[in-house]
C-alpha cells in the first residue's frame, strides 16, 4: 500500500486551471498497477479537455461483483491534486518520503490515502477469494479540486446510466483524526468577485480622480457586515454552525505608494446554510453595490461589476437514517469500538452531485486534515485501518 501511494504521489496531476497537464499520466500509472488484478470489469471514461495532455481528463471505474450483483457500493476518490504551494521542509512536494509512519508529499492525504485504501480493501477480498455481499465499484475521477466539470459532473451528465437510485456512495474525502465523523450535508458555496473601476490619479491630488481602492474597501466592509447580520441562522448539524462570508483575495494595479488606483478587485468565499437562497444573497450583493456606486458617483464612475466565480447550491442532506449511514456506523463500531456521529461541513465534495440526484452519499475517512498544506502527509495506519472499514462495509 505504501509503495503504491509513493508511486502515485510522484506523478503531478494538476488541473490545467492550475497550469498543469491534468490526470492522464497518473491514470495510466494506476491502470498499470491494477493490471492483472481480478476485477470483473475496468472502464476508462475520457472527458474532452483540449488544455490537458492528450486532450482528455480520464476517470477509471473498476467493478468487483458481489454475491448480490445489483446491490452496489461505490467508493469514489479523485486523481487530481492542488498545486504544491510554498513552505515545504520535510521533502519536495512530488518526491514522496516515508518517515515516522507517514508518507509525505502533495496529494498524499488528499486524496491518495483513500484512493489506495479503497484499492487494497478490494485487493484483500480478491486475495482471500471473498466475494462481498454487494458489488464494489471503485471510481478514480479527475477534476475534483477545480469543480468536477471534467470528473463526476461530466460522468453524471454524459453517462447517467452509470448511477442508480439505490446505489450506496462513499466519498472518502473528509473526516476527522478519530474516523468518527460522517458527513451527510454541505453548505452552499458561492465565490464572487467585486470589480471596481474608478480613475487612477496621483495620490496627492485625489480630487482629480476616483480611488477604486477606497470604493472597494467601503463596499467590502458594508457587505461583510450586512451578510453576517441578515443571514445569521445557526444549525448545529454544521461546523461552524453558521453561514460564513470571507473576503479572501484583493488585487489592484497600484505599484507605488503614491498611486491612487483606478481598479480594485475583492473576492468573497461564502459558505451558506442550505436554508438560504443563493439568488437572494446575490441580489443583496448587487443592491449594496448599487448603493455604494451612488455614494461615490462622479460622472459615470465608479463602475462596479459582480462576477460569480463558483456557485454550488446545496442539495438536500443525506438522511442520517439511510442505509449507507447505518452500515458505515456499524463497520466503525465493529472495527474500532466507537460511535460515529453525523454532521455537515462548509467545504464542498462531489457527494453533493449525488445528493442532487437523490442518491444517498456520505463523506468519511480518518484524516489528520493535512490537505492543501505544506508538508502534507498520509498516516499509514489511517490508510490501513480505513481499508478495513471499506472492506467491512462491502461485506455487511
UniProtKB/TrEMBL annotation:
Q: Does the keyword Transcription regulation apply?
A: no
Molecular function terms, GO-annotated? hydrolase activity; metal ion binding; transaminase activity
Q: What is this protein called?
A: Diaminopimelate aminotransferase
> Which cofactors does the annotated protein need, by name?
Zn(2+); Co(2+)
Q: By its UniProt entry, which Gene3D superfamilies does this protein fall under?
A: 3.30.70.360, Zn peptidases
Q: Which UniProt keywords apply?
A: Aminotransferase, Cobalt, Hydrolase, Metal-binding, Transferase, Zinc
InterPro entries per UniProt = ArgE/DapE, Bact_exopeptidase_dim_dom, Peptidase_M20, Peptidase_M20_dimer, Peptidase_M20A
Record has Metal-binding as a keyword: yes
Q: Which residues form the signal peptide?
A: none
Tell me, what's a Pfam family for it? Answer: M20_dimer
Q: Where is the Peptidase M20 dimerisation domain?
A: 184-295
The superkingdom of the source organism is: Archaea
Q: Which family is this protein grouped under?
A: Belongs to the peptidase M20A family.
Amino acid at each position: 500500500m505504501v509503495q503504491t501511494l509513493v508511486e502515485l504521489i510522484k506523478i503531478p496531476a494538476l488541473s490545467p486551471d492550475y497550469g498543469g497537464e491534468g490526470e492522464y499520466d497518473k491514470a495510466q500509472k494506476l491502470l498499470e498497477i491494477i493490471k492483472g488484478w481480478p476485477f470483473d470489469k475496468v472502464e476508462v471514461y475520457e472527458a474532452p479537455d483540449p488544455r490537458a495532455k492528450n486532450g482528455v481528463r480520464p476517470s477509471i471505474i473498476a467493478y468487483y461483483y458481489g454475491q448480490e450483483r445489483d446491490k452496489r457500493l461505490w467508493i469514489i476518490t479523485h486523481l487530481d491534486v492542488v498545486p504544491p504551494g510554498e513552505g515545504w521542509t520535510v521533502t519536495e512536494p512530488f518526491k514522496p518520503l516515508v518517515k515516522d509512519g507517514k508518507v509525505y508529499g502533495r496529494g498524499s492525504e488528499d486524496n491518495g490515502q483513500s484512493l489506495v485504501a479503497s484499492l487494497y480493501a478490494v485487493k484483500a477480498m480478491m486475495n482471500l477469494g471473498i466475494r462481498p455481499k454487494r458489488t464494489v465499484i471503485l471510481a478514480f475521477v479527475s477534476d475534483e479540486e477545480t469543480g468536477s466539470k471534467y470528473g463526476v459532473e461530466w460522468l453524471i451528465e454524459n453517462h447517467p446510466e452509470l448511477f442508480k437510485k439505490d446505489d450506496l456512495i462513499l466519498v472518502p474525502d473528509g473526516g476527522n483524526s478519530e474516523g468518527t465523523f460522517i458527513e451527510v450535508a454541505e453548505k452552499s458555496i458561492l465565490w464572487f468577485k467585486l470589480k471596481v473601476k474608478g480613475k487612477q490619479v496621483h495620490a496627492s491630488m485625489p480630487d482629480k480622480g476616483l480611488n477604486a481602492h477606497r470604493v472597494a474597501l467601503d463596499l467590502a466592509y458594508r457587505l461583510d457586515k450586512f451578510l453576517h447580520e441578515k443571514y445569521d441562522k445557526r444549525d448545529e448539524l454544521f461546523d461552524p454552525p453558521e453561514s460564513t462570508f470571507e473576503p479572501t483575495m484583493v488585487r489592484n494595479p497600484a505599484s507605488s505608494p503614491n498611486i491612487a488606483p483606478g481598479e480594485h478587485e475583492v473576492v468573497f468565499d461564502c459558505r451558506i446554510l442550505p436554508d438560504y437562497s443563493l439568488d437572494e444573497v446575490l441580489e443583496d450583493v448587487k443592491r449594496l453595490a448599487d448603493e455604494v456606486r451612488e455614494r461615490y458617483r462622479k460622472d459615470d464612475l465608479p463602475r462596479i461589476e459582480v462576477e460569480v466565480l463558483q456557485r454550488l447550491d446545496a442539495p438536500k442532506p443525506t438522511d442520517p437514517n439511510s442505509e449507507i449511514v447505518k452500515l458505515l456506523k456499524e463497520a466503525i463500531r465493529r472495527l474500532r469500538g466507537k460511535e460515529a456521529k453525523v454532521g455537515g461541513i462548509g467545504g464542498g465534495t462531489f457527494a453533493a452531485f449525488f445528493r442532487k440526484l437523490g442518491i444517498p452519499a456520505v463523506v468519511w475517512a480518518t484524516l489528520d486534515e493535512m490537505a492543501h498544506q505544506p508538508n502534507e502527509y498520509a498516516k499509514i495506519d489511517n490508510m490501513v485501518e480505513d481499508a478495513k472499514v471499506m472492506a467491512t462495509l462491502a461485506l455487511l
